[in-house]
Write a structure and sequence with these properties.
20 strands; 9-stranded mixed β-sheet; Protein-Tyrosine Phosphatase, Chain A; globular; 6-stranded mixed β-sheet; 3 domains; 33% helix; Rossmann fold; 16 helices; UDP-N-acetylmuramoyl-L-alanine:D-glutamate ligase
Length: 439
């Protein structure tokens, strides 16, 4: 009971913050939650927490909270540079993240998966594979279920599979992954980090404190810091990698494991995710053939290259989870039809110029939305672009522009907090609009 009797404050009343507060309460801590928001949903949640003995401060009361605490738990969605965090820093209160808090209470091994793209697919895939092989496991973290909720079951689990973002890794102290997975890296979140190096350094913290009894799973040839952990590599390019995809089958150190097309995943990027999942299972001592067999019924998570409908011989694809240029690139490469692309959203500090060549080769016309729409149009001079004010307008225009045999691909390439609360909300709206077209 590390925090029994301690005076604690949690910053942020989202899912992770609420989970952290409830975990601290169970540990016997005195718990206060501070959130700078004042929305009705927050007030309702505050009332619910108050009923179980958790004090909640909202708005200015939270930002200017005068109380002192033994420790602060920072929710990953809160920028450390905001005033509510500055108030804690000024009082010299120690700060850890929700992931660190949960790890302190964890009683089973942890697989931690990071990367700019593919985290959720790989997390769900390896969880299904391990469960299919008889291991008691649970997926949590950035995938949706907070680590602080999942950790309550850790005594009954063989392993926890944790999806971790750079935001979550910023505040780790003693966190150590038994298997640390680095899927890929590309620029992202430059609206939060001063440069790409700072973003990369936050993610690299996943390898800190690993020992020679641990494993790292990484792409072959990736330039990563030296580690004493045992390394497993995967590649769609280098046949000398431990796990290699030759375009037809996946092999392990020269021995064939599976014909990849038998899995319900397509494209080289998903082959990489599949190999990473196999490597995780191998690191945990599970037979590779059993792992591959357990994955045969796996389907990709919603909003990632998800076929929504075929209308008049035009395929509509929802890739709302595409919040980076790398994700958009993979989505474009996954299509074998001429593409009408719907893209754009919030300005996250990077430009779309680097995809101009690929877009000019793969995209017939681009329909652009969000606060970046005009800048993206300027980045793609060789592509016919149209800027519209809403997703509904974009879908209607894409429908008008498409021809039989085309694919309409919704792959924003950035987040959309300028228009939607999450990629899930925008993906659901896209699907709803498409289904309206099919009526």
């Amino acid at each position: 009971m590390i925090y029994s009797g301690k005076k604690t404050v949690v910053l942020g009343l989202g899912g992770s913050g609420e989970a952290a507060a409830r975990l601290l309460l169970e540990e016997g801590a005195h718990v206060t939650v501070c959130d700078s928001g004042t929305a009705q949903t927050l007030r309702q949640k505050a009332s619910e927490l108050a009923s179980v003995g958790i004090n909640v401060k909202l708005g200015d009361d939270a930002v200017n909270d005068p109380d002192d605490y033994d420790i602060c738990i920072l929710s990953p969605g809160i920028d450390p540079e905001t005033p509510i965090v500055g108030n804690v820093v000024n009082k010299q209160i120690p700060i850890i993240g929700e992931v660190e808090l949960a790890f302190e209470e964890c009683s089973c091994p942890v697989v931690a998966i990071t990367g700019t793209n593919g985290k959720t697919t790989t997390t769900e895939l390896v969880t299904m594979m391990l469960s299919g092989c008889g291991l008691r496991t649970l997926a949590c973290g950035n995938i949706g279920l907070p680590f602080s909720t999942a950790v309550r079951q850790s005594l009954e689990l063989d392993v926890i599979v944790l999806e971790v973002s750079s935001f979550q890794l910023e505040t780790v102290v003693q966190f150590r992954a038994d298997v640390a997975v680095w899927l890929n890296f590309s620029p992202n979140h430059l609206d939060r980090y001063p440069d790409v190096e700072a973003y990369r350094n936050a993610k690299l913290r996943i390898f800190e404190r690993q020992t020679d009894g641990d494993f790292v799973v990484v792409p072959a040839g990736e330039d990563l810091p030296a580690t004493s952990a045992q390394k497993l590599t995967f590649s769609v390019i280098d046949p000398n990698a431990d796990f290699y995809y030759d375009g037809k089958c996946i092999s392990f150190r020269g021995s064939k494991i599976i014909d990849f097309p038998t899995a319900r995943l397509t494209g080289p990027h998903n082959a990489e995710n599949f190999m990473a999942a196999l490597a995780i299972g191998h690191a945990l001592g599970v037979d590779l053939a059993r792992l591959a067999d357990a994955a045969k019924d796996f389907s990709p998570p919603p909003h990632r290259c998800e076929t929504v409908a075929e209308i008049g011989s035009v395929v509509w694809v929802n890739d709302s989870k595409s919040t980076t240029l790398d994700a958009m690139e993979k989505a474009l490469l996954s299509q074998d039809r001429p593409i009408i692309l719907i893209a754009g959203g919030k300005d996250k500090g990077f430009e779309f110029d680097e995809l101009a060549g690929l877009v000019s080769k793969r995209v017939k016309k681009a329909v652009l939305i969000g606060e970046m729409r005009h800048r993206i149009a300027g980045s793609w001079p060789d592509v016919e672009t149209c800027c519209v004010d809403s997703l509904a307008e974009a879908v209607a225009l894409a429908h008008k522009l498409s021809a039989p045999g085309d694919a309409v691909l919704f792959s924003p390439g950035t987040s959309s907090f300028d228009m939607f609360r999450s990629y899930v909300e925008r993906g659901d709206q896209f699907k709803s609009l498409v289904h309206t077209l099919s009526k």
